[in-house]
Structures are given as structure tokens and as C-alpha cells.
Amino acid sequence: MKKFTGTLKKLGEASMERVYNKYSMIQIGDEVLTNIKIARKLDPFLEEGLRTKSPMTISLMAGNVIMAVQIEGQQRYLSKYNWGGMGVGGATMLIAGYALYSLSKSIIPAIAVGGLFYWLFLRTVLDYLKIASEGGKNI
Questions:
Q1: Which residue has the higher pLDDT, 99 or 55?
Q2: What is the pLDDT of residues 2-35, one digit of tens each?
Q3: In 3D, which of 36, 61, 46 has the Cα closest to residue 131?
């Protein structure tokens, strides 16, 4: 999880990607972030920060996805996490790990699949849980 605080100065070109808007770049304070996704329901709060020029904090989870936005002195807004991908991905990794273990009779390939599962899914969930633990209004 990463947090960035400052005045939102620029929003780059936006494109739609499933349930997200993807910005080519976001400048907050002195930081320039590239290829950042934000849930469409959360995007108006980000744009409000640009209009009002008020200091704000954005919280990113793994995968460069903004999951929380807070304009200074206002409510913190939190995007809901889509747990569906976690279940499908987890089941796929479990089946792949078992198949590799069965074929090779070695635990090493199964451990490798477990590491891949962590890299692809678990770190994202842990980031989300950390962001959600700080509170805010789910939208």
C-alpha cells in the first residue's frame, strides 16, 4: 500500500477499463504517478480534489489502483473490492499447484505456484485490508 498526499495538480488522459477509469498520469504534490486505475464510483471524488485545489490523500494498493480518496477536512471514501477475481484466481492456483505436485511428486512446483498466487492476488488483498482498516465510507 502506498499513500500520496498533496494538492492534485493534473489528471492525464483517461480511458475506461472494465469497472475502472485508467489515467495515463496523475500529479499529486511533487509526485507523478503513471497508469493509475480508479473505480468509476470513486473517480468524482478525485476530480473534486482537482477542482477545489484542496490538499488530499490517495491510497493505492498493489496494481496501481486507487482504493481510497480523502480531501483534507472531508469524509474519506473507500472503493469496494471485487472479491470475485480472488476466488477464481485462488481456485485456479490451487488446481495448478495440486496438478504440478501430482505430476512431479515434488513440493517445489507447488511452492512456486503458491508464490505466484501471493504475487498476483494475496498482496492485493492485504493492501486492501490495510486501506479498509483506516475507515471511510464505502461506495
A1: 55
A2: 999 999 999 999 999 888 899 999 999 999 999 9
A3: 61
In angstroms, the Cα distances linking 8 to 16, 54, 84 are 21, 8, 32
**Distance (Å, rounded) from C-alpha 7 to C-alpha 11?**
12
Distance from C-alpha of 50 to C-alpha of 14, rounded to nearest angstrom: 14
Which residue shows C-alpha cell 496494481?
63
pTM over 0.85: no
Residues 6+ apart with CB under 8 A from 24: 12, 13, 14, 15, 34, 35
pLDDT for the residue 93: 67
- The answer to whether residues 74 and 66 touch, using CB atoms and an 8 Å cutoff, is no
- CA dihedral over 60, 68, 20, 14, signed as positive or negative: negative
Closest alpha carbon to 46 in 19, 95, 73, 7: 7
